[in-house]
Amino acid sequence: MLTQTQLASINPETPAGTLRYRCARLTREGLAGRSRPYRERGSAPHHFWPTRKGEAIVTGGPPPRGGERREPNRLFLAHAAGLSEVYVALKTTLPAEVKLTRFEREADAREPFTAWASREKRAIAPDAFIEITEADGGALLAFVELDMGSMSHRRLKTKATGYAEYVKVEAWRERHPFCPALLFLTTVEKRARSFLAAMEKEAGRDSLLLTCACDLARRLPDCASEDRWLLSVNGGRQAVDLLTALREARRPFDEEQERAKAERDRKETPSASTCARTPRRFAPTCDLGLARTGESSGSKACEGDRLPADELEEAILAQLLAVLEREPMVREAISEAFAELDAEQPQRAAELERINAELRNTGESLDRYFRAFEESTMPESACGPRIKELSERLRGLQARQEELAAEEPAERDPLSDEDLALLQAEVREVIESGDPPTRKALLQSLVDEIRVVSRAEIYPSFSLPAVRPPSGSVPPVGFEPTTIGLEGRCSVH
Question: How far is Cα 34 from Cα 23, in angstroms, rounded to an integer?
Fold first, then answer.
């Protein structure tokens, strides 16, 4: 269903007179139906829809039987034209680098699923399903529900219940990489907030389904550009534009992908380089990973210049002590570390809250699969792979939860002058009288990285504790969650 005005909007290169002539001819040939619904003021544009004959020609189907479709009633025309207006708005008002790549009406957007408890066959039937592709190729997905003010409260509750059940059984995983957002367009803000409340009651505050509601049903051309979308994730406290809402729905998926990529990169990181001519970061091992005279690294000797490990260790230890004795620089680094920690605290708290919500959802999903298996409502071949996937996800979330908890100590006090003096004395004692294993252990604790440019240009980076331990004494270095990074320079001849 498209109106004459909408056809002109999506075909700006076609003259208006030519477009009217073509539409009239399609109507005369019986390939399109046409109606002009009543309006209290002014005149409505013509509304066009394909006839059964026209649809058969376009799709290549057999000739229709049983006569033509009846002319739709006024309410259906208004609703169908409204959905078309959403399509036109997405096609014409999105930024140039963002494209509408998929728009499916109810018949194609319907998604069947099986309820957990009753094992009944159910389905969600959104008015439309949309997919928007961003400049980087990322997809934004959403179900669309359009309420022109005629949907009863009972019908709204039924819609909310259906979507909540759809998300609880994670039926979206069969068709989508992440849970699409639910876009609810209605006539007034009160109805929008009522639907948000109904969805929160049915699906829960921590649901993976992001519900977005707005009051633009009577101003649909503005639905993609105005900041009128209220989100369930923040209780509708702040209105945002459509793209921001859809990106928020995709955010958990992107974060999960980033965590998985970081884990893969961590596992695939090549072993550290020991050669001054090989441009890789190297983490010191017990002997700093430096080949001694006459030794080769690996099965094939490197052609680069060899660095004498004993001399380099001495040079780095001397540089470490020199850095520690530059107290103003150390104090400034500690202050910067605490400022950065305080600045990141809200982000860590928000991520921890999201992780806790995902842990609850994943745990509930596992419980449902176990219950289905125990009650023989789902075979092992069906629930086994899903239980394995959810268990792996649960372990990953728990590990991240522990990391975030470890990064947030209950009390944080910077090193005092006494602590810093004690650390300097301990390092000096190890350098002057420590045995080789103790000296190497010190380097392991405090040396974060060594960047070798040449024998005359070697840059060790040191990681020093910035947080004062509860006991008041400095523990073995390198164990505190909050550290400062300092860089020095030395040479080996």
Answer: 9
Boundaries of domain holding 22: 1-72
| Domain stop point among 406, 425, 448 | 406
CA distances from 239 to 97, 132, 233, 246, 317 (A): 23, 20, 11, 13, 57
Joined together, the tokens standing for residue 431 give 């350098």
- Taking the C-alpha atoms of residue 241 and residue 226, their distance in angstroms, rounded to an integer, is 6
What is the dihedral sign for C-alpha 12, 108, 168, 151?
positive
- The rounded percent of the chain whose pLDDT value lies above 70 is 80
What integer pLDDT is reported at residue 40 of this predicted model?
57
> 3: burial class by Cβ within 10 Å (0-12, 13-18, 19+)?
buried
Amino acid identity for residue 425 in this structure: A
The answer to whether residue 181 scores a pLDDT higher than 80 is yes
What's the CA gap between 71 and 76, in Å, rounded?
10
Range of lowest pLDDT (91-105, 153-167, 175-189, 278-292): 278-292
Cβ–Cβ contacts within 10 Å for residue 433, how many? Answer: 9
Residues 117 and 155 in one domain: yes
Reported pTM: 0.57
What span, in angstroms and rounded, lies between the C-alpha atoms of 11 and 295?
74
**Do 103 and 251 have their domain in common?**
yes
Distances (CA, A) of 253 to 99, 249, 257: 20, 8, 6
Give me the number of domains the chain comprises. 3
Whether residues 380 and 253 fall in one domain: no
Q: Predicted confidence band at 407 (pLDDT cuts at 50, 70, 90)? A: low
Specify whether 189 is located in the same domain as 253.
yes
Q: Is 338 or 104 the better-scoring residue by pLDDT?
A: 104
Residues 82 and 12 in one domain: no
Statement: residue 318 has pLDDT above 90: no
- Residue 109 domain flag: yes
